[in-house]
Amino acid sequence: MEEYWIVDLEKEQIKVYRFSEDDRGRDYSFEDTVKVGIYDDMELDLRMLKEYLEG
């Protein structure tokens, strides 16, 4: 496993741990765009996740 994501729906935050970097993780909000570490050309727009969850 190269990375994992912890999603906190109540706080609208995501913590991304990438083992190739430091192990403290990086925090993102649902307003951010995050590069997926296992693919060179993939990013996730977390605003779309927020819109989906709000239905």
Describe this structure in words.
The chain has 55 residues and is of the alpha+beta class. The chain has 1 helix and 5 strands. It has one helix spanning 46-54; strands at residues 3-8, 13-18, 26-29, 33-35, 43-45. The strands form 2 sheets. The chain has a 3-stranded antiparallel beta sheet with strand order 1-2-3, with no helix packed on it. The protein starts with a strand and ends with a helix. The relative contact order is 0.22.
List the helices and strands and how they pair.
Elements: E1 3-8, E2 13-18, E3 26-29, E4 33-35, E5 43-45, H1 46-54
Antiparallel strand pairs: 1-2, 2-3, 4-5
- Measured distance between first and last alpha carbons: 31 Å
**Total strand segments:** 5
Shape: globular
The fraction of residues assigned to DSSP E strands is 35-45%
The helix-and-strand class reads: alpha+beta
Chain-averaged pLDDT? 89
- Strand order of the biggest β-sheet: 1-2-3
Sketch the major β-sheet.
Answer: 3 strands, antiparallel
Order of helices and strands: EEEEEH
Could you tell me the radius of gyration in angstroms? Answer: 11 Å
Number of discrete helical segments: 1
Low-confidence stretches: none
Percent of residues in helices comes to 10-25%
